[in-house]
Fold:
Amino acid sequence: MFFQTSEREMIEKEQGADKAVGASEQVIFKVEVPANRYDLLCTEGLTRGLLVFQQKYVQKQKQNKTKKTTKQRKQKAAVIFLVSSGLMKLSYTDLYFVL
Structure:
């Protein structure tokens, strides 16, 4: 998670407004990396995360793959069966080709 703050805001929050006089107004980014976000541990992932936070990164849309029909699945299963039976040196008969 990303937080945007400044040195003045941090001092005001911790010690009060009277102690924050003269503190810097420069923006500081604080980064908290959750335990399950391993993509943010490398520089590329952290950079991408910052760009997403700043709304400067547009993610590419994934194209949907066409779903295989039942006929294509049966053909693939038949090919796998025939190849594996050929490797096991089994003989082919007309009984095996009926699907």
In short: The mean pLDDT is 78. The helical segments are 7-15, 43-53, 70-87.
